[in-house]
TrEMBL record, chain A:
<keyword id="KW-0812">Transmembrane</keyword>
<feature type="transmembrane region" description="Helical">
    <location>
        <begin position="121"/>
        <end position="151"/>
    </location>
</feature>
<comment type="similarity">
    <text>Belongs to the ABC-3 integral membrane protein family.</text>
</comment>
<dbReference type="InterPro" id="IPR037294">
    <property type="entry name" value="ABC_BtuC-like"/>
</dbReference>
<feature type="transmembrane region" description="Helical">
    <location>
        <begin position="179"/>
        <end position="208"/>
    </location>
</feature>
<feature type="transmembrane region" description="Helical">
    <location>
        <begin position="247"/>
        <end position="264"/>
    </location>
</feature>
<keyword id="KW-1133">Transmembrane helix</keyword>
<dbReference type="GO" id="GO:0055085">
    <property type="term" value="P:transmembrane transport"/>
</dbReference>
<feature type="transmembrane region" description="Helical">
    <location>
        <begin position="15"/>
        <end position="36"/>
    </location>
</feature>
<protein>
    <submittedName>
        <fullName>Metal ABC transporter permease</fullName>
    </submittedName>
</protein>
<feature type="transmembrane region" description="Helical">
    <location>
        <begin position="48"/>
        <end position="78"/>
    </location>
</feature>
<keyword id="KW-0813">Transport</keyword>
<dbReference type="InterPro" id="IPR001626">
    <property type="entry name" value="ABC_TroCD"/>
</dbReference>
<feature type="transmembrane region" description="Helical">
    <location>
        <begin position="90"/>
        <end position="109"/>
    </location>
</feature>
<dbReference type="Pfam" id="PF00950">
    <property type="entry name" value="ABC-3"/>
</dbReference>
<dbReference type="GO" id="GO:0043190">
    <property type="term" value="C:ATP-binding cassette (ABC) transporter complex"/>
</dbReference>
<feature type="transmembrane region" description="Helical">
    <location>
        <begin position="220"/>
        <end position="241"/>
    </location>
</feature>
């Protein structure tokens, strides 16, 4: 099959639309993870998602819907819990990470979930996106863009100096927790597209590369979004042409962009 | 002469743990007072009280005769005080020097759906000139030196044209040259803006060099015998 023929296949059309929207918008939440140093937290949310998936599989429900629900609950809990107990989000994340993965494996064992179903949670595939998945990704993307446009200066101030933002009267904690919640939902979507193990490709890599190149917030948003789109669509097209697994190809495309950004000398 | 800041029997702490006990202090309009004390003496707690970021246990704090511990005028308080936090690292977020300064005006003339005006930008430009950073306006803050970061922090605090400036350990980690430059800038902004300045520091020599008066804070109380009038 040639690339042009792929464009006529509905599954591929949906995958391409999903890749463009998710790559262009979900990647913007990677900035939240990098700036707030929440790498442990996103890892914990990913494990929380696996627990949700395990519950879904054990109960015979849609594992990805259950995973997204679990991640959404987790992201709502992490921010306020770390504020309340004055604990680093990393510690809270670590606690949930180990706990949730242990419970997930117990559930897999007790419910006799087939290994292939468990494996699908870890790998995901953009080619299995349904029409309702596309609607979900589009709505999430729109919320992400609206949030960044509406609170551009406030988010900029929180990212630059959260303490000063608080003193100036910016509702820093509320905005931070809102962004964390959106990041949780985005991780759920990323599980579907690239799988639980390769979530960083969609969320983190573009933001990390853009942080090295951008000189201000506007540039950071534009470069992250463009790199995100190039990563997902480029990876998808390459996987089709070269007959490779999509999740892994998308990830390697993202890694390549990150490598290039590291090689660009910073002035 | 009117007092810019007045502390009366101020007692503060966290939970049941008292950090500051029965503090009395008057800072006159236009005066530069430094509070010198070792780490853990309660200097930052005092700032948190003045900024109303931490509730007080007893006494009161008056800013230009307004008891801020009893009023809910946080917007007014923010318009009166410019706060320079203890921040010496460049952070990891890309932002230009000009943008960072402009953000200091958030909440005073622009916020949420209201964009910064031409006047806001003009104010930011003027202040950068005053702290000798205008040549670095478009520079990414991550590329600034420690001394430049500290001058930027002061520029940001001044962007709202406050009447009081609170400085939290401004010269820590700075080399001699950067310290001198900072001192000169503090001297000129004080004159330019008719500022009352309260600085906390653990560097006694520096406090004596730049302030009109130095107060020694030790174990949560002012040591009257060590108060130095320069």
């Amino acid at each position: 099959m040639t690339l042009l023929e792929f464009f006529k296949v509905p599954i591929f059309q949906r995958a391409l639309i999903g890749a463009i929207i998710a790559g262009g918008t979900i990647s913007l939440l990677g900035i939240v993870i990098v700036v707030f140093n929440m790498t442990t937290l996103r890892f914990a949310l990913m494990h929380f998602g696996l627990l949700g998936g395990a519950i879904g599989l054990s109960l015979g429900a849609n594992p990805l819907t259950a995973a997204i629900t679990a991640i959404a609950i987790g992201s709502l809990l992490f921010g306020p819990l770390s504020d309340k107990f004055k604990l680093d989000t990393g510690i809270i994340g670590g606690f949930f990470m180990t706990g949730s993965i242990a419970v997930a494996f117990l559930l897999f064992y007790k419910a006799g979930v087939p290994a292939l179903d468990v494996f699908s949670l870890f790998t995901g595939s953009i080619l299995t996106l349904t029409n309702s998945d596309i609607v979900f990704v589009a709505v999430l993307g729109l919320i992400i863009l609206t949030t960044y446009f509406t609170f551009f200066r406030e988010i900029q101030l929180i990212f630059y100096d959260a303490e000063q933002a608080e003193w100036l009267g910016v509702p820093a904690q509320k905005i931070r927790n809102g962004l964390l919640f959106l990041t949780g939902l985005a991780i759920g979507v990323a599980m579907k597209i690239v799988g639980a193990l390769l979530i960083d490709a969609l969320i983190l890599l573009s933001a990390m590369a853009a942080m090295r190149i951008a000189k201000n917030f506007k540039q950071l948003l534009v470069i992250t979004s463009l790199l995100g789109m190039l990563t997902t669509t480029g990876g998808l097209l390459l996987s089709m042409v070269m007959d490779l697994p999509t999740g892994a190809t998308i990830t390697l495309t993202g890694v390549t962009f990150l490598l290039i950004s590291i090689m660009i000398p910073t002035k | 002469m009117e007092n810019a800041i007045e502390l009366r029997d101020l007692t503060m702490g966290y939970g049941n743990h008292t950090i500051l006990r029965n503090l009395y202090l008057n800072i006159k309009v236009g005066e530069f007072v430094s509070i010198f004390g070792e780490n853990g003496a309660g200097k930052t707690t005092l700032f948190k009280g003045i900024l109303q970021l931490l509730p007080i246990m007893k006494g009161n704090i008056k800013i230009f005769n307004v008891d801020v511990t009893k009023s809910n005028e946080k917007t007014w308080l923010r318009s009166q005080i410019g706060y320079v936090p203890q921040r010496h690292n460049q952070g990891n977020f890309p932002i230009t020097v000009f943008e960072a300064t402009l953000l200091g005006r958030w909440g005073s003339s622009f916020s949420y759906f209201k964009k910064p005006s031409a006047e806001d930008k003009e104010v930011a430009k003027d202040i950068l000139q005053l702290v000798d950073l205008s040549h670095l306006s478009h520079q990414d803050c991550r590329r600034l030196s420690g001394g430049q970061i500290q001058r930027l922090n002061i520029a940001r605090a001044l962007a709202r044209h406050p009447r009081i400036l609170l400085l939290d350990e401004p010269n820590t980690h700075l080399d001699i040259e950067s310290q001198q430059k900072l001192d000169n800038i503090l001297h000129s902004i004080r004159k330019e803006y008719h500022l009352s300045i309260l600085m906390i520091s653990h560097d006694q020599l520096h406090t004596r060099r730049v302030s009109d008066r130095v107060v020694h804070l030790r174990n949560g109380t002012f040591q009257k015998d060590l108060e130095l009038v320069i």
